[in-house]
């Protein structure tokens, strides 16, 4: 079946979309001037910088933004969409397809899953480093403020996570204007620095970067571990494509973000040329009278950056649930008009705890820089590998074209990753440990559900046999409709067998319903339902949802009225099975993973809530299954 996905909301003005994209997409990459260049110079020199190596670092920054963000993500990756949706899980869905992957395809799927796990690490580190980078400006006002940097950052982060339950709509109203003010401010301060030392513009020449590598050797290569901080938002940019479409993103990037970043980075470099001892060139660019207002604007921009990554973690989790890699979670829609605005309290709580621990443990952007780089570069490299697979197998690109495009990307990605891996002991372990934990959870859930489904399918009674048996030996039929939820419509749902065994009756109308997730972000209502009418009042309903959507069974029953089935939700009984899983079975899952899967099952959101079933119409019947 074919599905459609709108590229951007119909009737929306391009300028408004681009303005909003400034806040949502570029929150992460837009706040990087706060800490990126400072860490780059710190890593490059160790002693007072000379005019030449300042130009070398700036040249690396300029060409990293150009090659990675402008070319890789803006020019190429924005074309790699899954019916309008972007991001690593969209690529994963294209590779996985409808069937369970095996062989080489399974390796790509596992790599994509680990890349998605790394994004959770990004969601933890970005709020910490962005807010810390902004609040550290207080030290420029008075060194005594150094003692309040960490407490102030913790307070801001706690408030940010607590207001998530109100939804992103209220914050969304200030996304665009806040970031416009931010980019104007960093452009003006950067321009002032360039006017004082225009020689810094020579860094646009890539030969300065080449000479930097040639003359500084290993240290020149390792500086990439700090330079990567200027491109940290590239992956978020790609993931947010589904919210705006590619055109507004390109307008926002080339119309404001890219020029503002270059002006500010070059302005900071110009300041260092004149004042090699500058410890924080970003805030040293700001006149004394404007320092406090600039700290306020920086903090607001950091909040926008954090909001964008937190919302992205919510979206990532919903995709994982729909693709079968995560247990059901509480998904609350915070907008009546924007389907993508959701709040997941479980994820919010875990992110908040991890983020606060991150701030307390690392205490500064200098210490967090090592952790940040590995999370970002790991995801970037995996995205490139998945893109190559999709381009070669799905889109049938010629091998030479795939090799040329992705070969360049991989050289850059692996260079950044290698330069960051040497920081493993200095904090680089943190995102890898986070990602490993998330990967174990996601893969254990997927494997456990697959084994559980196989066990249930092997013992299932074919639906046709049940109907033939009921024709020969009729049972009591009562008025009303019964909906039996199942993952396999070819067999009799276990909950129906338990119902027949204990109650020895059926409703006049029986719907055997399965809700499946397609490899597209959304499915139109006119293609959502497949209906098969059987005899004796039995109907098979197969519902299709995209991986960016949440199931709604009452809405499905409403759609059935257009197919000739008039069903009143208030007069319908919904039957669900509640499984008690025992780790005493003979499946190949390791004992510790069985216990982990059981723990995840116990803490999963109830099926009634996940499918939006009316609580007073739900009947649950339990069964024990040995895994």
Detailed description of the structure:
- The protein has 627 residues and is of the alpha/beta class.
- Helix 6 (103-135) packs antiparallel against helix 16 (291-322), helix 8 (149-162) crosses helix 16 and helix 8 runs antiparallel to helix 17.
- A hairpin with an 8-residue loop joins strand 1 (332-333) and strand 2.
- The protein folds into 2 domains: 14-447, Amino acid/polyamine transporter I, CATH 1.20.1740; 459-626, no CATH class.
- It is built from 25 helices and 8 strands.
- The longest helix is centred in the N-terminal third of the chain and has 33 residues, at 103-135.
- The protein has helices at residues 14-24, 27-30, 36-44, 51-76, 88-96, 103-135, 138-141, 149-162, 168-196, 207-222, 224-227, 234-239, 241-244, 246-274, 281-284, 291-322, 345-362, 365-394, 399-421, 429-458, 463-472, 494-503, 553-560, 591-603, 607-610, and strands at residues 332-333, 342-343, 476-485, 505-517, 529-533, 538-545, 572-582, 618-626.
- The model is unreliable at 1-13 (pLDDT under 50).
- Helix content is 61%, strand content 10%.
- The strands form 2 sheets. It has a 6-stranded mixed sheet with strand order 5-6-4-3-7-8, with helices on both faces. A two-stranded antiparallel sheet has the order 1-2.
């Amino acid at each position: 079946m074919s599905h459609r996905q709108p590229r951007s909301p119909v009737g929306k003005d391009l300028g408004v979309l681009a303005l909003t994209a400034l806040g949502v997409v570029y929150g992460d990459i837009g706040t990087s001037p706060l800490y990126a260049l400072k860490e780059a110079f710190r890593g490059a020199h160790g002693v007072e910088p000379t005019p030449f190596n300042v130009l070398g670092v700036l040249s690396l920054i300029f060409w990293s933004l150009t090659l990675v963000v402008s070319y890789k993500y803006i020019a190429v990756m924005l074309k790699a969409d899954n019916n309008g949706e972007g991001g690593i899980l969209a690529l994963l869905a294209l590779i996985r397809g409808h069937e369970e992957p095996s062989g080489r395809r399974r390796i790509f799927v596992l790599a994509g899953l680990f890349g998605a796990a790394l994004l959770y690490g990004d969601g933890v580190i970005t709020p910490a480093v962005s807010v810390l980078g902004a609040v550290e400006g207080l030290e420029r006002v008075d060194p005594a403020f150094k003692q309040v940097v960490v407490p102030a950052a913790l307070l801001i982060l706690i408030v940010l996570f607590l207001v998530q339950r109100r939804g992103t709509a209220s914050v969304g109203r200030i996304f665009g204007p806040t970031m416009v003010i931010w980019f104007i401010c960093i452009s003006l301060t950067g321009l002032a620095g360039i006017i004082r030392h225009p020689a810094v513009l020579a860094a646009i020449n890539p030969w300065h970067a080449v000479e930097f590598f040639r003359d500084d050797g290993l240290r020149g290569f390792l500086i990439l571990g700090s330079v990567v901080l200027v491109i940290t938002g590239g992956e978020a940019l790609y993931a947010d494509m589904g919210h705006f479409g590619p055109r507004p993103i390109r307008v926002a990037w080339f119309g404001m973000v890219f020029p503002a970043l270059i002006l500010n980075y070059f302005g900071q470099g110009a300041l260092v040329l004149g004042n090699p001892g500058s410890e924080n060139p970003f805030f040293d660019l700001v006149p004394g009278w404007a320092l406090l207002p600039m700290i306020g604007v920086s903090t607001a921009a950091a909040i926008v950056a954090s909001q964008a990554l937190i919302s992205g973690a919510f979206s990532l989790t919903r995709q994982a649930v729909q693709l079968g890699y995560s247990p059901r979670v509480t998904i609350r829609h915070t907008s009546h008009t924007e389907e993508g605005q959701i709040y997941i309290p479980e994820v919010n709580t875990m992110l908040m705890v991890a983020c606060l621990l991150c701030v307390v443990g690392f205490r500064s952007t200098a210490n967090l820089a090592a952790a940040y780089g590995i999370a970002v570069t790991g995801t970037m490299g995996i995205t490139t590998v998945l893109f190559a697979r999709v381009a070669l197998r799905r889109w049938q690109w010629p091998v030479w074209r795939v090799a040329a495009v992705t070969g360049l990307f991989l050289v850059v990605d692996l260079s950044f990753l290698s330069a960051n891996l040497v920081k493993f002991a200095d904090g680089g372990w943190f995102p890898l440990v986070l990602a490993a934990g998330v990967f174990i959870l996601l893969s254990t859930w997927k494997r456990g559900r697959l084994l559980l489904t196989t066990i249930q399918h092997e013992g299932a009674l074919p639906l046709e046999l049940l109907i033939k048996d009921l024709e020969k030996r009729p049972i009591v039929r009562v008025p009303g409709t019964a909906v039996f939820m199942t993952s396999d419509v070819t067999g009799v749902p276990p909950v129906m067998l338990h119902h027949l065994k204990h109650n020895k009756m059926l409703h006049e109308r029986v719907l055997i319903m399965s809700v499946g997730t397609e490899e597209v972000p959304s499915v139109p209502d006119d293609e959502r339902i497949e209906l098969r009418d059987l005899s004796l009042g039995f109907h098979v309903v197969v519902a299709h949802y995209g991986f960016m959507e949440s199931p709604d069974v009452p809405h499905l029953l409403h759609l059935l009225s257009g197919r000739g089935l008039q069903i009143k939700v208030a007069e319908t009984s919904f039957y669900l099975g509640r499984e008690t899983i025992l780790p005493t079975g003979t499946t190949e899952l390791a004992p510790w993973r069985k216990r982990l899967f059981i723990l995840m099952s116990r803490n999963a959101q109830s099926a009634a809530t996940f499918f939006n079933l009316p609580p007073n119409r739900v009947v649950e019947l339990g069964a024990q299954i040995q895994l």
